[in-house]
Amino acid sequence: MRILVLNSGSSSIKYRLFRMEDEAQLAEGHVDRIGEPEGLLVHRAEGAEPVRETRPVRDHGEGLRDILAALVANGALADTADLGAIGHRVVHGGEEFTTAVRVDEAVMRTISELVPLAPLHNPPNLHGIEEARRAFPATPQVAVFDTAFHQSIPPHAYHYALPRSAYTDHHVRRYGFHGTSHRYVARRAAQHLGRPLEALNLITLHLGNGASATAIAAGRSVDTSMGMTPLEGLVMGTRSGDVDPAVNFYLQRATGMSPAEMENVLIRESGLKGLCGANDMREVHRLAAAGYADARLALEVFCYRIRKYLGAYYAVLGRVDAVVFTGGIGENDHTVRSCSCGGLERLGIRLDPERNAAPCRDVLEVSAANSEVKVFAIRTNEELEIARQTLVCLGQS
Ligand code: ADP
Fold first, then answer.
1. What is the extent of the structural domain holding 111?
2. Which end of the chain, N or C, is less packed with Cβ atoms under 10 Å?
3. 282 C-beta closer than 6 A to ligand 1
4. CB-ligand 1 contact for 281 (6 Å cutoff)
5. CB of 209 closer than 6 A to ligand 1?
6. Which residues are catalytic?
7. What is the reported pTM?
8. CA distance 189 to 330
């Protein structure tokens, strides 16, 4: 069966096509700047010349039709009937969705009811599903939620110490995100260790533009650093992560910023960018190497926050079998890995500098031979995980 995985943003659609019999990726690409005067279409397929076109793409419906046309033109699909299912990434599934679900009217309604919890992400995800259902009414569509893996977090870890009504009336609690990635790398680590995931305690660190840490006990998420929204926890490219909530009110009073302006500062002007002006980790390294003290500080704050969560989740789990780094930074940045794990030898976490400096192609073991806790860099593949869950949801796995 061929499964198309879609990640719909406000003005973009990213896609990957998988052949599930051998989990081969047949094609990938994206349509950007939808609704703008000049759109961009990029398609890459096995054994075909990459395609890059600039032209207007009116709306998501047109973008989807372009994607399907490209998949048929480059031979990845014989025709649209060759498509077994579409798996959609949906950011927020609230408490309603603990696994992937086949999309129907009731599911669409529930995802739209969750919009207040994820106003930036759920509307474009929902719009992508609507357009895909319109364009391919005969193809089964499955929604896979970023939050679902974290629905196993127990109440003492998902409740904030706020008045009860914040939870009962307004659904304020920790939901957690990046669940598909944490689940994928956890499974990959278990495969690599040759042990069942259900027997393992892991700390997984997804470090990309967004960043989150997850404590996994016996294969299930029991705590994660992102909270009601993806703003809490680790330092990110432009997001602050943990901050004293009173800073918010203090800065609004001190500067005259509105709540919306303050929210923008915390989401888009903070993190690495706030600390040193650069949100891309490679740029932060370049600036630090060129002697910019702010960039060095940004690196230190970034790694210190990770180290703090490693210690916290060690305490949560009691026993840790492995720590897994993933995401663009986690997979590629050996300096961040060594700085984050520095000084944790007493916890049984010891890196091997040579192994740590090697490139990560799939699974790279970076811990020293005598490290009690294994440390890995593992390339994530959220799209393949979405395709797998789509297949499981349709009962064909
Ligand atoms: P997203 O969260 O948007 O999926 P990625 O997982 O691709 O993003 O991560 C993007 C981050 O990874 C950026 O900060 C980028 O600088 C960083 N990154 C990518 N490659 C490297 C590398 N070789 N060394 C250090 N950082 C890297």
1. 2-145
2. C
3. yes
4. yes
5. yes
6. 146
7. 0.95
8. 14
